[in-house]
Design goal:
The chain is mostly helical. The chain is 63% helix and 0% strand. The chain is elongated, with a radius of gyration of 23 Å.
Length: 184
């Protein structure tokens, strides 16, 4: 295998793992075990691949199963991972509303530095709002542009969180006593 082929395969592997991490980040508890079963690997094997320091890599057979799980061909998976146009022989458009997020989006969300004040549940909401932007806007952005989108959404979520905290505090605070009105 040439250096170019190795680089290509490595990019595809990184894309698959990043997208699986993103998919499972918002999934309900137990989804990783269900996915492992569906893909025909042990839960430990999948968990190891998805860890921050994996000792296992997704082989071609696994990547093909993941492509099928996502409802795309392996050629489409490669095209998405490498930022190329989908093969002409595909019957599904790449930007269908259920299409996977683009590689630039995945890169941006994985590398994004969240503000510590933003609760995890709102991070999930922000990530999903950005994903919806892609789904319904059918446009791809650079990783830098995706970070700007995430930053704007994050600020709005923080403002909402602050407003809700203030509203909760105001409700708990006793009303100030009213003074007597003078008649005169």
């Amino acid at each position: 295998m040439t250096q170019d082929e190795q680089t290509r395969v490595q990019r595809i592997k990184q894309y698959v793992l990043a997208r699986l991490r993103d998919e499972l980040a918002t999934a309900p508890r137990g989804s990783q075990a269900q996915l492992a079963k569906k893909l025909g690997v042990s839960g430990a094997h999948l968990s190891n691949m998805l860890s921050t320091s994996p000792s296992r890599q997704p082989g071609e057979d696994f990547r093909r199963k993941v492509a099928a799980h996502w409802g795309i061909s392996y050629a489409e998976l490669e095209a998405l991972a490498l930022g190329e146009d989908a093969p002409a022989s595909t019957s599904k458009p790449v930007h269908h509303k259920d299409a996977p997020p683009p590689a630039a989006f995945i890169t941006a969300t994985l590398e994004y530095r969240w503000m510590a004040e933003l609760p995890d549940e709102l991070r999930v909401v922000v990530r999903e709002q950005a994903r919806q932007y892609h789904r319904f806007g059918y446009s791809d952005l650079t990783p830098d542009e995706w970070r700007r989108v995430l930053t704007g959404l994050e600020r709005e979520a923080l403002a909402l969180s602050a407003w809700r905290a203030k509203a909760a505090t105001d409700l708990r605070r006793p009303a100030a006593p009213r003074g007597r009105r003078r008649r005169g």
